[in-house]
Amino acid sequence: MRGTSEPFKGNPRPLERGGGQRGKGVGSLLLDKAEEKLREKGVKTVSLSVKKENTKALDFYLRKDYYISKVVLVLEAKASMLSCHGLSSEYTVRVTSPARIRRNTLRRATWWSTLIEPVDRLIYRKMYKKGEAVVVLKKKRIKGFAEYSLDSIVDVDNIAISSYLDTETLRILVCKLAEIGSAKNINLIRIYVDSSKTMIIKELENLGFRVVDAEFLLEKELVNENEE
Prior knowledge:
Layout: H1 26-40, E1 45-51, H2 55-63, E2 67-78, E3 91-96, E4 107-108, H3 111-123, H4 125-130, E5 132-138, E6 141-150, E7 154-161, H5 167-183, E8 188-194, H6 198-207, E9 210-221
Parallel strand pairs: 7-8
Antiparallel strand pairs: 1-9, 2-8, 2-9, 3-5, 4-7, 5-6, 6-7
Helix pairs in contact: 5-6
């Protein structure tokens, strides 16, 4: 966890306990101590994510006064089934290093891209140097980008566009990712999107994506005893 005097919006991992420690209050004690340390540092809000199938963890955090503030949808599509057509001559598409992208003015598709990316970039500096990203430009101005990794799927960790209404840039990014995956004989693309980003979700579904999973963002206000 990390925190500032501003409301903390991070993505700490859910507490992991050995099988023999379950039901003995160890997780509750660890969480209480972590919250105490954050409170001492002036942290106002703590956030974490839980996968929807992890109902025991979800129940645990809800009983500890966390609440669900956002839902991230996991969408997948087969590259060979996407509705892609010709690229407008106004746009240019490049593949580059994530470290070279100017991203401050772009709108992210998920809350965690904004919150934990600065920390990830420091911790995983080598990964960012070796990673890849697709960038879409229009008249030399960045309209959007997508950072991805290739394994058995094209896993899009971070996608951003100039406006949530800019579905054309989104389509170009997705189609380029499909092209990259197909060149490596990878036919499945996975993208993460906040459920509140309805225009992005609608355009992805129009292209052929479907929701296959979800994650919950849980938050809790840390109130100092002296403030009560």
